[in-house]
Amino acid sequence: MKFFIDTANLKDIAEAQALGILDGVTTNPSLMAKEGITGKNNILKHYVDICNLVDGDVSAEVNALDFEGMIKEGEELADLHEQIVVKLPMTKEGIKACKYFSDREIKTNVTLIFSAGQALLAAKAGATYCSPFLGRLDDVSTDGLNLIDEIRQIYDNYGFETQILAASVRHTMHVVNCAKIGADVMTGPLSSIMGLLKHPLTDIGIAQFVADYEKGNK
Ligand code: G3P
């Protein structure tokens, strides 16, 4: 299972990278705005800064909603750095753009997926990644994990190579349950990754080992 971090915060990205388990980064216009990154040139520069911090794929989202605009923006993003994956919205135009880029071997991530049918279309269009939004489904009393499970079944039935990128992950149990289902990738905030380290019995065990060692080596 690949671990991506879902942020545009360079400090958080560097912290996850330093742990040695980071496989990539996802961003979106909201995450960029949260870090105060505005204006086209600053946004493009920020994507390059992120690529220079990590080894894996970095999803960069287009803002255009029409096909021509998506192609222009996506090509510009893809030219920035070899690690860039063009992130496209799950719309009719987005699916057309996904097919355009996959025919040209440019990596894509189809985002804002909330149904198995949408995920099927993304795979048919040759998406590298499809991003079902787990947490946002949970927010509206709908089982987000069930969607991940449905997509896994459909992709496995036909051997689709599109990777399921479980997005809108909010906490550690989302990560663990996605791993049980067989999501290819999860993307979440730093807390969802670092939280996996924690167990009180580990802390108690370490304290005991340290105390016993010190007792025996006075
Ligand atoms: O990866 C998608 C993500 O950025 C959305 O997360 O927490 O805003 O639903 P959230």
UniProtKB/TrEMBL annotation:
Pathway assigned to this chain's UniProt record: Carbohydrate degradation; pentose phosphate pathway; D-glyceraldehyde 3-phosphate and beta-D-fructose 6-phosphate from D-ribose 5-phosphate and D-xylulose 5-phosphate (non-oxidative stage): step 2/3
InterPro entries the record matches: Aldolase_TIM, TAL/FSA, Transaldolase_3B, Transaldolase_3B/F6P_aldolase, Transaldolase_AS, TSA/FSA_arc/bac
EC number: 2.2.1.2
UniProt superkingdom: Bacteria
Active site annotation, chain numbering: K87
Reaction catalyzed: D-sedoheptulose 7-phosphate + D-glyceraldehyde 3-phosphate = D-erythrose 4-phosphate + beta-D-fructose 6-phosphate
Location of the protein in the cell: Cytoplasm
Family assignment from sequence similarity: Belongs to the transaldolase family. Type 3B subfamily.
Function in brief: Transaldolase is important for the balance of metabolites in the pentose-phosphate pathway.
Name this protein carries in UniProt: Probable transaldolase
Taxonomic source organism: Flavobacterium bernardetii
Name of the coding gene: fsa
